[in-house]
From TrEMBL:
This is Cell shape determining protein, MreB/Mrl family. GO terms for biological process: cell morphogenesis; regulation of cell shape. Its main location: cytoplasm. It comes from the Bacteria. Keywords: ATP-binding, Cell shape, Cytoplasm, Nucleotide-binding. Pfam families: MreB_Mbl. The keyword ATP-binding applies. PANTHER family: CELL SHAPE-DETERMINING PROTEIN MREB. The keyword Transport does not apply. GO terms for molecular function: ATP binding.
Length: 344
């Protein structure tokens, strides 16, 4: 016989443009692609997440993949609502209770979008719903106590969106976000190779270069790697050899919007807060935080130390779950979904 986990399951959810992560009981209990597989002609939903990817690869061409989140916003409300129900049910399959959910949100979304998100979670089976901005959740997930008088600076670089915030005494000092993420970096690499070497490469290869070869700061090593693409002039497939030194400056140029965002947020810090930031540094999270040399380079640009969180891709979902136990202590950070109930 299965043992139920408790009366109320507590879930921290980070629903990004590429992945959805659900955190509970001190671990990530679900991590899947935030997409759906749809039948081309009828629009019938064939599967979500991993099942959707498998169906798209095994189908005879009558199936398409829909990514339901873009720039932190639901592209299709109905599909997202069904996707959330599917993932929440999958995450708490051994429980008969309706979960309490804390969902991470980008800093720059409107009340209308928040309303739609809460409504989708309610229809997905959540009993109580709370919202928390992604950088605040990341700081909590990284182990920082943000209801003390010391200022905390946190930045999350996702696939489509980068969010940054300063928090002090359990409240928001400043928060901003921009449409920039790992996908932007991939596109920047692809465009550079096309402009500089007249070679067309795909986004998959650009992402692989970013993850496996390129460092934001030159390491001093003479590492070389090869890329394969089609020459623009005649479409002939060729192989090109590059070095890390070729691309480090390009990475720095591509990442400038992130630095400008952090500086904009930091301008809101008082002299006392600036002292805290110099002492404690900035927490960097999100999948792009794993990029080689990014912490060292950003630190050199903003003038405060930068620390990459442990498991940076998971800390937002973890922080949401941890914040559920401290929601009463964080009334200026945690937003109750009750004011949005009632449908849209």
């Amino acid at each position: 016989m299965k043992v139920f986990s408790g009366i109320n399951d507590k879930l921290g959810i980070d629903m990004g443009s590429s992945q959805i992560r659900i955190y509970s009981d001190k671990r990530v209990i679900l991590e899947e692609a935030s997409c759906a597989a749809l039948e081309d002609n009828s629009g019938k939903i064939l599967g979500f997440g991993t099942d959707a990817i498998i169906r798209s690869h095994s189908s005879s061409g009558d199936c398409r993949i829909e990514w339901t989140i873009r720039n932190g916003i639901m592209v299709d409300y109905e599909i997202t609502k069904k996707m959330l129900r599917y993932f929440i049910n999958k995450a708490i399959r051994h429980s008969v209770s309706r979960p309490t959910v804390m969902m991470a949100t980008p800093c720059e979304i409107s009340s209308v979008v928040r309303h739609a998100l809460v409504d989708a979670l309610a229809h997905a089976g959540a009993q109580q719903i709370f919202l928390l901005s992604a950088p605040a959740a990341a700081a909590i997930g990284a182990g920082v106590i943000i209801d003390t008088p010391e200022a905390v600076l946190s930045t999350v670089i996702g696939k489509d969106v980068t969010d940054c915030g300063i928090y002090c005494a359990g409240g928001v000092v400043e928060e901003h976000g921009i449409s920039f993420g790992g996908k932007t970096i991939d596109e920047g690499i692809r465009r550079f190779v096309q402009a500089k070497y007249h070679l067309m490469i795909g986004m998959t290869q650009a992402e692989q270069l970013k993850r496996e070869w390129i460092s934001v700061v030159h390491t001093g090593e003479s590492r070389t790697f090869t890329i394969r693409g089609r020459r623009i002039a005649d479409g002939v497939e060729i192989i090109l050899e590059l070095t890390e030194r070729n691309l480090s400056p390009i990475m720095q140029r591509i990442l400038q919007p992130v630095v400008q965002l952090i500086k904009k947020v930091m301008r809101a810090a008082t002299p006392e807060m600036a002292e805290d930031l110099l002492k404690n540094g900035m927490i960097l999270s999100g999948g792009t935080a794993k990029l080689s040399g990014i912490d060292e380079w950003i630190a050199s640009q903003i003038g405060v130390p930068v620390f990459v969180a442990d498991e940076p891709e998971n800390v937002v979902a973890k922080g949401c779950c941890l914040a559920l136990g401290n929601a009463v202590r964080l009334p200026m950070l945690v937003e109750s979904g009750e004011k949005y109930y009632g449908g849209i």
